[in-house]
Design goal:
Elements (H helix, E strand, L loop, with lengths): L2 E7 L6 H15 L3 E7 L6 H9 L5 E5 L6 H11 L4 E4 L11 H8 L4 E6 L6 H18 L11 E4 H4 L12 H7 L4 E6 L18 H16 L11 H4 L1
Length: 241
Amino acid sequence: MEYSVVIPIHNEEENLEPLLDEIESVMVALAHPWELICVDDGSTDNSLLILKQNVQRRPYLRIVTFTRNFGQSSAFAAGFQHAKGQFVITLDGDRQNDPQDIPKLLQKAEHADLVVGWRVQRKDTFSKRWISKLSNFVRSRFCQDGIHDTGCSLKVFRTQALRQIKLYHGMHRFLPALFRIEGFSVTEVPVHHRQREKGKTKYHFWNRSLGPFLDMLVVRWMRSRHLKYQVQQEISQKESL
């Protein structure tokens, strides 16, 4: 398996069919073995029913279901655990990420362990753009990850590197910093961003402020306490003779 596409889904019944069509069009054109893993994060609408119906006619589709809503970090972690591809591609289920950008990120992934989408022209409300801009400014100064926009879910991971990263609640926002802490290469690519046409956003000031700020302090602590050493020589009995 070359590519695993992972999408967390929570109450996106109106977006699922067109999203699956878009992803299929892009991934089939790449002409490599691929799979799509949709993680239903405790949806209370018809999202899971629609996914189950699509399994019958989309052989590449796999579904992971949660017993209740556990949050985006858990959904990503479950998707990562089930992924079989050499590269993992992530994007949101609200169709604001454009699947047409996937080949551009994959091209960069040939020389990087993580490629992050950068939404240069956000298509969100003023308040959401302001909160995101402030959060990204503070995060980049504290964590020094060199990334403009960690909130963009459109990313490509080298699976071998991804397996070495342990996710905690809320930590999906800081994956570039966690990759850099472990010595992996990270880069970013400008991508399109689209307006949400259907469904409701799950993000607001309260779930994008205190929790992420505390998580950011944890990441900064991890960065400062990360073990850094260089082995000069390893000596064994055989080598000393």
